[in-house]
Amino acid sequence: xxKKEQTSHRAKSLPVPxxxxxxxxxxxxxxxxxxxxxxxxxxxxxxFLLAIYFMRLGTIVDRAYDRMCKTRYGVSxxxxxxxxALRRSGPPYVRRxxxxxxxxxxxxxxxxxxxxxxxxxxxAERLPDPSHNGGFLVHLTKRGLQxxxxxxxxLASEPILAPAMRQFSSAERDEINRYALRILSALEHSxxxxxxxxxxx
Length: 201
Fold this sequence. Notes:
Radius of gyration: 21 Å
Helix content: 55-70%
Number of helices: 9
Strand content: 5-15%
Shape: globular
Structural class: mainly alpha
Strand order of the largest sheet: 1-3-2
């Protein structure tokens, strides 16, 4: 019996996407799911497909977020993440570059360029690091703090995911957040995945 003729019990348990895109047929993600189910229905594709969903979701959100940040705020999405990382650290809104590139999953070189742009824009400043000779800390300026406060309020009231999340109840949205956080936390603590972007260079 060929692989296309075999369908395991696990594969049968996968939900088959329903086309409900306002009458325009299946989405590209639904099509990808159907294609893999048709081609390799003999395998348990759940985690494989979930990884594809996460990658596509990340790419879609990242592109939309970057466009919005550039259009509304005049900074790139990547630079905005640095400002948000500084803001969520709490007063005095200071982080070491090492803390930033590890938290944001980018290289140390990328952080240096982002900080350069934010310093030039007057949104951040470099301060001497008293614990590291020759090192520096990244600090939100007063202007940067005001800027990011307004931005956070805007992002919270008009999030990128809003068009997709409207279909879910408040309880379902809480569940989605909990499951996503559990998956990310498990990966970060597994030890099997290197989160240091510099290691890939």
